[in-house]
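Task 17 of the worksheet. Students: predict the tertiary structure of the chain below and write it out as structure tokens. Keep your answer in the requested format; marks are given for formatting as well as content.
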Amino acid sequence: MEFMTDPMGIENRSMEIIRPYLEKLALSEPERLVYSRMIHAAGDPDYANHVALHPQAIAGALAAIERGASIYCDVEMVRTGINRRQLAKFGGSVHCLIGDETVAQEAKKLGITRSMVAMRTFGKQLDGNIVAIGNAPTALFEVLRLMKEEGIRPACIVGIPVGFVGAAESKEALVAQSPVPYITVRGNKGGSPIAASVINAIQYLKGR
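Model answer:
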């Protein structure tokens, strides 16, 4: 059985296969790249029908990265999937507190998820930076609360939690309530690789 082995050739061919699924959407080139990376990470062209992208999201995230913004994640899988070397070129770093023992203890004490406590702990650090959520709807709900009640203002929210309990609802709340630009995928679809793919796609634009 013959198969492709050249990494760049595989990637280029993948983008060629994805492109027709995006033609009807009249996307800008940066939007097309972000959509393509999400579809590539998921292996699912249907993502194109569910993306909700604020008109200032890509530009806002690009500007934030250029001035050295950091990325604040809900889980380690998102943090691990982000190209940290590329981000570091602009002075940024990637943070996650899901494994922090103090966070775990506080979550147990309050009877809430660790991801909620993690976002609450980040607090004002989120201002002007980028939030990337790929797993926990509760993390996204907490960021929305922080924005509403404490005036926190990230530069952009990549909010793509996956699952059947609260995921779709948290993303609808993001679209309806967020005072800052966002990128999400409506419904149950999502996940850490998808959130990371969005950050990496935006970084790729900045690295051109």
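Marker's comment: Residues 48-207 form a domain with the Rossmann fold fold (CATH 3.40.50.10230). The chain has one domain: 48-207.
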